[in-house]
Design brief:
Elements (H helix, E strand, L loop, with lengths): L9 H12 L9 H11 L9 E5 L7 H7 L4 E6 L2 H14 L8 E6 L11 E7 L8 H9 L2 E12 L5 H9 L15 E7 L5 H10 L14 H15 L5 E9 L1
Parallel strand pairs: 1-2, 1-4, 2-3, 4-5
Antiparallel strand pairs: 5-7, 6-7
Length: about 250
């Protein structure tokens, strides 16, 4: 693991701190993220001994698929939160059989928005991370430059329709929205709309449990009364449904 932590932007440092604080309990609440990682794994290319960079490895939900898919691969697994990397490392060690000669793996603390230091990569993979960036499309363009000829960038992230019900209620009620507007991204190959929670309060609890509550810059959190009003309105208008729009993409060098 890299011993030198990068200089993170204020927003990246805040996001890393929130996720890092929940690293030990993250997977108990990350069933949706686990399913997304598994679906993304099904879209990975067939490669022999690839050089792989994973961005935002978290606790290793996608990492486990990567090292199993490419047993002769060379991997650099990265995240902005050192606590997440520590969990990923533990989880991968537990997943390997005793005396198993696993793939070569290194770990680095890395800000996805400033990812670099590697080139000639056969695969860059990232799951449920791009939506945290200020300009995901520009970051994808920059990351493609790190690929070797014939290399692939595979991603899964939130799409523009995510949380449409919650956003609509906040707008109708005249309340501020902390969620950012998500752009359409290039390379789309699959998408899905999921409603994993029974009601809007469960949605909010899920977001908090996995550290996914870092709002847009300048956002002033809702007061308890305003939050209860929004929850009631979402339950009345949409039956408590809040949709996650997941998009999957592949891009070449």
């Amino acid at each position: 693991m890299s011993l030198n932590s990068p200089i993170l932007s204020r927003r990246s440092a805040e996001i890393a701190a929130r996720f890092g604080a929940r690293a030990g309990s993250y997977e108990r609440h990350a069933g949706l993220q686990e399913a997304v990682a598994a679906r993304l794994a099904g879209l990975l290319p067939d490669l022999e001994a690839p050089r792989v960079l994973e961005l935002g490895c978290g606790t290793g939900l996608l990492s486990r698929h990567l090292v199993k898919r490419y047993p002769s691969g060379h991997f650099v697994l990265t995240d902005a939160a050192p606590q997440m990397i520590a969990e990923c490392r533990r989880n991968l060690a537990q997943a390997q059989r005793p005396n198993e000669h696993g793939p070569r793996i290194s770990y680095e603390v890395m800000d996805v928005g400033e990812a670099g230091g590697h080139a000639g990569l056969d695969l860059i993979a990232t799951s449920m991370t791009l939506h945290w960036l200020r300009d995901p499309a520009a970051s994808l363009a920059r990351l493609r430059a790190l690929l070797a000829p014939g290399g692939v960038l595979a991603y899964a992230t939130l799409g523009p329709d995510s949380f449409a019900e919650w956003r609509a209620v906040l707008d109708t009620e005249g309340l501020p929205r902390g969620t950012v507007d998500l752009p359409a991204l290039p390379g789309l190959v699959e998408e899905e709309h999921l409603t994993p929670d029974n009601d809007s309060l469960s949605y909010l609890r899920r977001m908090k449990a996995v550290g996914g509550v870092t709002p847009r810059d300048g956002y002033v959190p809702l007061s308890p009364g305003a939050l209860r009003r929004a929850v009631r309105a979402t339950n009345l208008r949409f039956g408590g449904r809040v949709t996650w729009h997941i998009v999957y993409g592949r891009l070449g060098a």
